[in-house]
Structure formats: structure tokens, C-alpha cells
Write a structure and sequence with these properties.
Length: 83
């Protein structure tokens, strides 16, 4: 009786340890997947930031060019005199 109770207890503990090991492996796998997805998101955000910065620079450059090209020719002299 004691022997079978001990075996049952050992079997229960062994099963519990195996379940815990599987949960840990699943948690580790999830952590690795999350890290990989996070890295991809950071890379995407970096590319988007570069795109936005280039677009902003182009818009600012275009606005300056169109603004300056619409000024009358004598405005350059006025701007120089004010310095």
C-alpha cells in the first residue's frame, strides 16, 4: 500500500514537472517570437521615420523654392540692405 502510494505520488510529481517544463518551453518560444516581432516593428518604424524625414525635407525645400521664385527681382537687394 505504501509502495503504491509512493509510486502514485512520484508519478503525479513527474507529470507536474513535465507540464511545468512544457509551459516554460512555450513561454520561452513566445518570448523569442515577441522579440523577433518587436525587432521587425522597430526596423519598419526606422524606415518610416527616414521616409517621413525625406518627405519633410522635400516639402520644405519645395516651399522655399516656390516662395523665393515668386518674389520680385528687387527683393534680393532689399534683403541684402537690411543686413
Amino acid at each position: 500500500m505504501v509502495d503504491s502510494d509512493m509510486r502514485a505520488g512520484l508519478l503525479t510529481n513527474t507529470q507536474r514537472v513535465e507540464r511545468t517544463g512544457r509551459r516554460l518551453q512555450e513561454g520561452l518560444r513566445t518570448a523569442y517570437e515577441t522579440e523577433e516581432i518587436g525587432g521587425q516593428i522597430l526596423s519598419d518604424l526606422d524606415h518610416q521615420r527616414d521616409t517621413l524625414q525625406r518627405s519633410r525635407d522635400r516639402v520644405c525645400g519645395a516651399q522655399c523654392t516656390s516662395c523665393c521664385s515668386s518674389l520680385p527681382p528687387y527683393i534680393d537687394k532689399i534683403l541684402i540692405w537690411k543686413k
